[in-house]
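Re: [ENG-882] Designed sequences occasionally contain unexpected residues at chain ends

Forwarding the minimal case from QA. Structure tokens:
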């Protein structure tokens, strides 16, 4: 029984050398037919991943440039809109000033015409009043004096009478 166990435990040098040779041979075969193709596939994949990362970085930088351009255009549009609003406000102010000036001018013209009309009406009323007073005073004078005065004498009397009033 002991011998069976010893045989199991005993070392055979030729077995060890053959096992090492088999291991080396298997490693060379696996390296030639398995590791190199797998490494080539991994290298290809790594290249594709690197290309994707590079494309993503390019897209990101392009997006940042586009964002900066958009921000500049937006700022320009805001400034342009503000300029348009300022211009419209200035135009509106000018138009309102013109409208007010025109209204004031028309009101002044209307007032002047009204004053002229009033003055003319006043003169007409005074003339009518003079004529009426003249007629009344001529009638009174005819009754008092008993004679008829000439138109010239009559006018002089009336004018002096009215001026004294």
């Amino acid at each position: 029984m002991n011998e069976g166990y010893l045989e199991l435990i005993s070392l055979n040098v030729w077995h060890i050398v053959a096992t090492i040779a088999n291991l080396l041979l298997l490693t060379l075969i696996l390296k030639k037919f398995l590791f190199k193709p797998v490494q080539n596939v991994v290298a290809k994949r790594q290249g594709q991943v690197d290309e994707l990362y590079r494309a993503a970085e390019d897209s990101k930088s392009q997006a940042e440039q586009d964002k900066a351009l958009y921000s500049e255009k937006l700022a320009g549009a805001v400034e342009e809109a503000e300029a348009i609003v300022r211009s419209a406000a200035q135009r509106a102010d000018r138009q309102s000033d013109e409208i007010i000036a025109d209204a004031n001018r028309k009101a002044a013209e209307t007032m002047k015409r009204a004053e002229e009309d009033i003055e003319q009406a006043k003169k007409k009323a005074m003339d009518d009043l003079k004529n009426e007073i003249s007629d009344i005073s001529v009638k009174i004078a005819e009754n008092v004096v008993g004679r008829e005065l000439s138109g010239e004498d009559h006018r002089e009397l009336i004018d002096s009478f009215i001026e004294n009033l």
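QA comment: On inspection the terminal residues look reasonable. Residues 2-164 form one domain. Proposing we downgrade this to a documentation issue.
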